[in-house]
Amino acid sequence: MADDAEPKKSPKGEDEEEDDPVEVVLFKSDSCAFCPRAEEVLRETLTDFGGGFFVLKVINVSENPEAAEEFGIFALPTTMIGGVSVTGIPEPDMIMKMILGAKVSSKRGASK
Amino acid sequence: MSDFVIERVKTGIPGLDELIEGGFPKGDTILLAGRAGTGKSIMANQFLYNGATEYDEPGVLVTLEESPHLIKRNMMRFGMDLDALVKKKKLAIVDLSPSKEATPMKIGEYPSFDLSGLEAIILNHVKKLGAKRVVIDTLAILAYKFRSRDILREEFFKLAANITRADTTLILTSEIQSQHDGLGVFDIEAFLASGVIVLYNEMISETSRSRSIEVLKLRGSKHSSRIHSMRITDEGIRVWPAEISTGV
Ligand SMILES: Nc1ncnc2c1ncn2[C@@H]1O[C@H](COP(=O)(O)OP(=O)(O)OP(=O)(O)O)[C@@H](O)[C@H]1O
Ligand SMILES: [Mg+2]
């Protein structure tokens, strides 16, 4: 369970496609009141952005506290894309910015 | 009138338990406040070390500021081998410090979050170790990490209540800002805790400082109301109950 939910941290290998999907990770918990709304906003925004560009991974910290500890994330909901995160219910604009940022940095990583 | 005795958690810090009727009331939240460098972290870690080695009470250290590596190194100077305790499952060190590489950079915050993640992380270790003592070092860093103070205040009440529910004793450290009179950055730290200990390191002359300790409040306890001398020795912190500090 923990292993499935673990997002990749390292830059993509050279042989990988430039258009690999961007990984979007949502940390939530069973008791967190704002988490359901955060998940909704994320799913809607990602759908609007077009499929195939990303994968959404949802980590339930109540079931998998180790994953949250590993990434040092303890305020929920937190959305993590690439090396950056936002805490609280994210606005669609912010999610877009983060995704574009992650795209750019993964392309840079690939062209090295 | 009554024979009712509050169960105490011994700190094992030489001289301190005498000031507080034998120890902290079990399951209480204690605030350990003081300016930078007054010995808050050392005292909190010593509380965990003594619990694990002398009283068979495992502990959880949640570090929000210093890296575990530095904490272990610093405590080793007092002959306290935290790594050995971790190996024996008497201590868990939860690294939530900024030094952690895997932690993403926070670029945004909306005032719609809680600290249920922190609670889940801590309670996971408490359960695994059967921990009786928890230290969160330090509250101050949260005020820098998050803008939404109101949320933090409320969340910390919940967090402290949920950690101490099973009679686990909780120590929170809090930094007193040099320009302020309060006991921490939230101004509510003292309400949050049922006990408040303040550490000082004041100038007593142009060329020297003197350390001291004050039990500002401790619910359910007849504690000393004076300021006592304290020193950081090669064996860690030591309090002189009979010595009233003249430094403050
Ligand atoms: N071996 C030692 N002998 C004597 N004093 C020491 C020793 N090691 C550390 N100290 C003193 O302890 C201080 C650090 O204590 P500690 O880290 O507990 O402070 P703190 O209150 O947690 O500070 P901060 O607010 O910066 O976290 C040092 O500044 C030093 O004065
Ligand atoms: Mg400290």
Features:
heterodimer, A: 112 residues, alpha+beta, Glutaredoxin, 4 strands, 40% helix, B: 248 residues, alpha/beta, Rossmann fold, nine-stranded mixed β-sheet, two-stranded antiparallel ribbon, binds adenosine-5'-triphosphate, binds magnesium ion
How would you explain this protein's 3D organization?
The complex is a heterodimer of chains A (112) and B (248). The longest helix of chain A has 20 residues, at 92-111. The radius of gyration of chain A is 14 Å and the shape is globular. Chain A is built from four helices and four strands, in the order αβαβαββα. Chain A has a four-stranded mixed β-sheet. Chain A has one domain: 3-Layer(aba) Sandwich (Glutaredoxin). Chain A is α+β, with helices and mostly antiparallel strands and 112 residues long. Chain A starts with a helix and ends with a helix. The model of chain A is unreliable at 12-16 (pLDDT under 50). Chain B has 248 residues and is an alpha/beta fold. Chain B has one domain: P-loop containing nucleotide triphosphate hydrolases (Rossmann fold). Chain B is 29% helix and 30% strand. Chain B has helices at residues 40-54, 68-76, 82-87, 116-129, 139-145, 149-164, 189-192; strands at residues 8-9, 24-25, 29-34, 59-63, 91-95, 105-109, 133-137, 169-175, 195-205, 208-218, 227-233, 236-244. In chain B, the strands form two sheets. Chain B has a nine-stranded mixed β-sheet, with helices on both faces. A two-stranded antiparallel sheet of chain B has the order 1-2. The longest helix of chain B is centred in the middle third of the chain and has 16 residues, at 149-164. The mean pLDDT of chain B is 92. Strand 4 (84-87) of chain A pairs parallel with strand 6 (105-109) of chain B, so a sheet runs across the interface. The structure holds adenosine-5'-triphosphate (ATP) and magnesium ion. The site of magnesium ion has 4 residues of chain B, from helix 1.
The name CATH uses for the topology of chain B is Rossmann fold
Overall shape of chain A: it is: globular
Instruction: Count the DSSP helices of chain B.
Output: 7
CATH architecture of chain A: 3-Layer(aba) Sandwich
Number of strands of chain B: 12
Count of extended strands of chain A = 4
Number of domains of chain B: 1
Tell me what the CATH architecture of chain B is.
3-Layer(aba) Sandwich
Q: Tell me the major beta sheet of chain B.
A: 9 strands, mixed
> Superfamily at the CATH H level of chain A?
Glutaredoxin
Helix content of chain A: 40-55%
The structure class of chain B reads alpha/beta
Main sheet record of chain A: 4 strands, mixed
